[in-house]
Amino acid sequence: MSRSGGRGVPVKRNHSLRAVWATIAVLLVISAILLSAALGATGLAFSVPSMLGLVVAFALGERVAFHLPARRGAHTLTVVELAAVVGVALTAPLTYVTGRMLGSLFALVVLRRQRGVRLAFNIANTLLGAAIGAMAISAFGLLELSITEAWPVVLGAVSLEAFALGLPVAFVIRSTDPERSMSEVLRELSVSWVASLSVAAFGIVLLVLAMEVPGLAVVVAGLGLAGILGIRSYSELYLSQQELDGVSTLTSQTATAEGIDDLARAVLASSADLLRSERGVLVIPVEAECVMVVRSVSDHVGAPDTVMPSGAIAGLLDATDALHVVQPGDPAAVVLFGEDNNAPVALAPLIVADRTLGLLALTEPAAPSETYSPSELRLFETLAWHSATAISRVLLEERLRAENEVKASIIRSKDQLIAAVSHELRTPLTGILGFAEMLRDGAMLSTEMSQEITSTIADEALDLSFIVEDLLTAARHELGALSYHCKPHDLARAVERALPSVERRSNQTFWKALSEVAVMCDGPRVRQIVRNLAANAVRYGGADVQVTVAEDGDVGAITVRDNGAGVPGKDSEQVFEPYRSAHEPGTQAGSIGLGLTISREMARAMGGDLTYRRVNGWTEFTLSLPLVGVTETSTLETTAH
């Protein structure tokens, strides 16, 4: 007999229930008309023993339901037709209707635990079937046929019932699930119709034999029972094969998934398909402060969303340590699916080596029953375990990949450092050694030549000191051992102390506009930054270099400007990266590509910043530091980390 199953009567939350309730109302009206006609024709004869027998028969017929060998949830085979054949052939209409309704109601509410609109629809559908059976009983009585002569009437009644009950199911499926084609629905219902007629025909044969040849009836009943058990066993094997195929597909997808996003979508899509869930959620903490949430509705799985975890989600991950089912309205169901969800939710933690990697949640299947069966729960556990293993592997691969990238970056930095240092140290050392050898060998030099050589040695040694200072500063910064002793300083005085060495080395006098500005800073660090900025302007800038000191809001600003070509806009931030410069490496002496990098780090460690911009043909680097009075204390000591 056709029942609400698969993806039929269960109504998606996105569709209106009005069509379903309208169908229920129509079924009740038709049933009332048929029952009135049947009872009016035959009277109100009633047998309590027969009624109780029908209650048991229909309850068992509704309960002994299993899938035909087809895709999970497509349609279901019950044996209520056996009870219908006996009831139509041997009882009065009122007895039949009462026994059938009580037995089916007990099976639907207690044994199959249906609720809501699905229960109302199935009750209305059952009442229509009972009314059709009552009409057949009336016709059977009016024709005054014997039991052996009445089988066409009985078979016709069961056929009409199967057809009449199938049409509302098809209508409801189409109205609540427009994605399914009518041809697909009719194909599934046709299998149910054929199954119902087959069971009814078997019941008629069995009934006739019981009247005429009881011994043969027992044999036929045994063969029929064996056949039903065989079909059920084959159905279970078929569905088990489907489950294995689904797990195999999931294994293949997770093995080839590119990253955690693809893996999460594959896990959720396969799990929802195998367990016939219309809504699902996969939660995976991907960082200490972030959680990835992937959601599905019916056959669609959305792109992963990386969101900040709420306290509810974080608590849910901590509290879920075993597979369990929660009812609609439970805090866990509300957090994952919202307040509009009205289906039970199965939660499975993703655990590997006692570590919870996430949570897989699915709304329970709409049919053939209201809750997952024990075998489906075991399948859910298997999927959760497999998913946890796959997610653990991918997260480990991504972490190893990130660590390898960090190590490769360190190796590249080391190589760049060695190349830059070896080149930049060689140039001044060559000059120093050459002139020192001349002096050691007692070369006859004029006073003017001796002074020039001495000045050159001093300048080259100064270049070496700047290079070593940058190297040591960068190394101490990376180790977190670079200390800053911030106290009030005059920026103009810091600039006046930093620039002479650069001017003397470049034989160039800078244009200056210096105002007294008191800021909180570490004086030696500020002088080091100014020297780096001025040296860069000399190396890479134009002929004119300008240095200004002024207040700018709540900060004091040192701006070093030059009229050189500058840096392309797309590379403006890259000049602050290690070993990057405005020119190709090695084209300018005295630079290893760390000056701007460490200068910005020092500026930010002192509560300020170092920025670059291009204004009206001028290249500007601006060091900004907080004014005295903006900070809360007059002396600040920090350590870079």
Short description:
The chain has 641 residues and is of the alpha+beta class. It contains 16 helices and 17 strands.
Biggest sheet record: 7 strands, antiparallel
Radius of gyration: 43 Å
| Unreliable stretches | 1-16, 69-75, 582-590, 632-641
Q: What oligomerization state is this entry in? A: single chain
Mean pLDDT over the residues: 75
The general outline is rod-shaped
Q: Structural class from helices and strands?
A: alpha+beta
How would you characterize this protein structure?
This protein is of the alpha+beta class. It has 16 helices and 17 strands. Helix 6 packs antiparallel against helix 7. The protein starts with 17 loop residues before the first helix and ends with a strand.
Please render the helix and strand layout as text.
Blueprint: H1 18-42, H2 48-63, E1 66-67, E2 76-77, H3 80-90, H4 93-111, H5 116-143, H6 151-176, H7 182-212, H8 214-256, H9 259-274, E3 279-285, E4 291-297, E5 300-301, E6 305-307, H10 311-319, E7 324-326, H11 331-337, E8 345-352, E9 355-363, H12 374-440, H13 447-478, E10 483-490, H14 491-506, E11 511-514, E12 518-521, H15 523-540, E13 545-552, E14 555-562, H16 595-605, E15 609-615, E16 618-626, E17 636-639
Parallel strand pairs: 11-13
Antiparallel strand pairs: 1-2, 3-4, 3-9, 4-5, 4-6, 7-8, 8-9, 10-12, 10-17, 13-14, 14-16, 15-16
Helix pairs in contact: 1-5, 1-6, 2-3, 2-4, 3-5, 3-6, 3-7, 4-5, 5-6, 6-7, 7-8, 8-9, 8-12, 9-12, 12-13, 14-15, 15-16
